[in-house]
Each structure stands twice: as C-alpha cells, then as structure tokens.
Amino acid sequence: MRTFIQKLGKSMMGPLSIIVAAGLLLGITTILTNASLVGEAFASAAGVQVVVGAVSALVGKVFGLLPILFAISVATGMVKEDKEIAGFAVVICFVLFHVMLNYMLGLNGITAENTAIDYLTSHGSTTLEAYQINAAYDTQLGIFTYRMGIFGGIVTGLWTAFIHNKFHTQKLPVAFSFFAGNRFVPIMIILTVPFVAIVSYFVWPFFSMLIDGLGTVISKSGPFGLFLYGFAERLLIPTGLHHVLNQLIRFTPVGGTAMIDGTVVSGALNIFQAELVAKNMDMNVFHQATRFLTQGTHPFMMFGLPGACYAMYKTAYAKEQPKVRGMLLASALTSFATGITEPIEFSFIFISPILWVFHAFMAGMSFLIMSLLQVGVGNAGGGFVDLFIFGILQGTYTKWYFCVILGIVYFFAYFFVFKYVIEKKNLKTPGRDVEDSSDDVVQVEASELGTTILKAIGGKENIRDIDNCISRLRLILNDTSVVDEAALKTTGSLGIIRINENNIQVVYGPKVEEATHALKQAAGTYK
Known about the structure:
single chain, alpha+beta, Gyrase A, domain 2, 4-stranded antiparallel beta sheet, two-stranded antiparallel ribbon, 24 helices, 61% helix, 7% strand
C-alpha cells in the first residue's frame, strides 16, 4: 500500500508542471495591469487588455482541464508498460464515466437547467441555497455531471491503469485475435467503466461531504491548522507522500472553496489563480488561498536551508571544505531560486532526527507566521522566481517583504542550530564523513553515467521498473539489498531511500532527469 501511494503521489505530479508554468504566465501578465507599476495609461491600453484577456482565457481553460490532465497523468504513471495505450484508453474512460453519471442524474430529474442558480432562485430557493445546490454539479468536456474535480480524474486514471495492467497482454481465440493485447484494453474500459460510474453516483455525495468537512475543519482551525500542514508536509518528504498532501490542498475543497465571479472554485491554488484575474479581488478570499501556498515556503526554502548549507560547510573538516563547497553552494542556490530542497534535506534528515524535526517545525511556523502577517504570495514553487513574480512585481499589497524579513531570521536560526547540533552530535554531514568525501569518490564521466548506475543497482536483470519524480530516481528491483550505495555516489547520488525489499529511491536533485535517461538507455528500456 505504501508503494502504491508513493507511485500515485508521483503520478499526480504530472499536471503540476503545466499548472505552475501557466500560473507564472498569468502572474507576469497581471503585472501589466498594475497601474502603480506600469502607469494608468499603459495598464488601461486596449492592446494590453487584449493580451491579458487572451492569457486569462488560455490559463483558465488549462485549469478547467485539470480533471482529465490528472486522469491521463495517473493512468500513464501507474501502468508498467505501453503507457501510450493507457493514455489513449483513459480518455475513453473519463468521457464514458461522466456520460454515465450524466445519465444517472437525468434519471433522477437532475439537469443543468434545473440546477442553474437563476432557475433555483425563481422557484423558491434562497440565493445561498441555490449556490449550494449548484456547487454540487459541473460540466466536464460539455457533459453535465457531479463536481468531482480532480477526484474524477484520479478514479478514471486508476481504473484505466488497473484494466490496462490486467488485460494489455490478454490472448483471445484466433478468430478474435485482432482484438487481443493492447486493443483489448479500451474494449474492457467500455464494458466496465459504466459500473464504476454507477458506484460513484451513490458513493460520491458522501465522499464529497467528507472532503468538504475536512476543508471546514482546516479552515476553522486557523493558524494551528497551517502549522500542522507545514509540519506534516516536511515530515513526509522522505516517504514521497507529501505530493499527495500538497495536491489535496492545491486542487480540492480540502484547500478551501470560494465563489469567484459567479463560479465555484475549489483548492488553494485554483482559488489563487482565479482571484488574480477576478473582476473584483476579494482580499479575504485571496489570503485564505495563499496561506497554503509559497508564502509559507519562502523563508525556509530561500533562506533557512541555505543557512543549513553554510553551517554544514563551516563544520566540515578543513581539508574537506574545498570538496564540498561546490555541492553545498549548488544545492543552496537551487533551493533559493527554484524551491527544490531535497538535495539539502537528504544530507541530514536520515542522520539526525533532531534536525529533521527542527526543520519540519520551522516549516510549520513559517506557514503560521506568514498567515498571521496577512502575506499574499501564491503559486506552487517556493523559490525566488515565485517571490519575484507573485510578490515583488505584484506590489506591496502582497506584503512580500515579510518573507524576506522572516527569511533572514531563518537563515541565522538554521545556521546556528545546525552548527551546534552537527558539532555536538558529531554528525556525518557532507565533509565530515571522511570515507564518503575522500579522494576515492570520483565522479564518473557523463558517457558512463547510465552503465555505472545500472551496475550499481544489480544489472538489467534486477530491474522491474524505472521512473523518477522531481528529484529522485524511483526504482522497483527484484532485490534492493544488492544496491551499491558507494558506486551510486560516484554518479552524483546524494543518498538512497530503501522503501522495502523491492522499492528504492536514489536522490539526485536537479540531475535526476539526466540520470533516469542515462539508466534507461543503458538498460535498453528507453522509449
């Protein structure tokens, strides 16, 4: 189950890159309408309004496609092979799933027409009751259905992956051999997904109430809830399950629900993006969304963890400092600019529970303090790029400067705490483990990267599956006990995580795509 959840979490990361890129584009264009920055004449110019309107329409459509993007990402991420077939089949599954829900709703007299707000208010419902009823339904690809959001995508993606893994090698009698194998997958989807939809029709209202209730609890828990979110999110880093927590907050009612320009929007990141282009920005709704977003990560990603790097450098043995300087500096700059923190975190969380808990505690406090100060910096990155576009360039209403002020405090807090604990406990951080930082650890040439990794993990015959997330090479092996960690260090590995006897993760940081590509080529599995 743990392996399944980890793989699901990684699969759900697919749409995030698209959403982050779309969000950055939207953030840049909203700057063009900020009269205090570009002047009233420029901000109100017809050409500028056309550009902003076009970008808003495009980004809005991308966010509207989130459910099917999640469906495709989950389906292709959870299957073992022939991922393109799963990508084809899941579109069929998604459409038929919602068509069946539409049919079931119609049987019970529920249609787009009689759940419209105007219709409900004209037939005796109060405005609040009308909005509550209307919010339960949505339109996906032109199909009136339940408002399931990304959960509809996850359900259809998982079902497609299940059917694909079970039937993509199915053999049939010779007379029907044309329909065997991969062609049998969409056939089984067509035959089975209506039953999944029927079950969902009865189950979803209860599940929706549970999710809405969880969102209400988080909303009413105030700053303490934010602390728990930040604390738990960092504690889950080694397991990879933080991806699941983040996506629930960003794209589902767990992260809040708001009415923006007459449309119900759920999820902290969705609400933030919608508020950026809203006709009349509601600052209360805006702050309710951003409290879960990058404003809570800037202090420890941009300042705290670089402070930890500096502490590790200062506590390294004198003769080892030149060897670790480049690695620690690169990790610190990566965290500062992009918010990719795992290369730093994996240098201490497995050797010091004290520093791990301290880091998680500081993350929770960062989310809490930023919310209390009413900071309003959003998006899903966490580095300087997000702070610059969604904070500094947006204007002082975001109170971005508090991120920097608290960040400076975090830099010194991390530096002194890390320095004290490392020296007090004699921790083997980079530059203090003589064996790991000795001259024997020579980085392999780029041309030998794939073959070296392949040999270190036990050869091609030991591999079941090769995948990666934003910073880790994720492997399913026949036996993880044969993995040579010392050999992996020569390929740039920052450490390994043994999930169980079959699952292992190798931390590479920003180099992970290069390592994955090289390993797949060496193993002959690259497609």
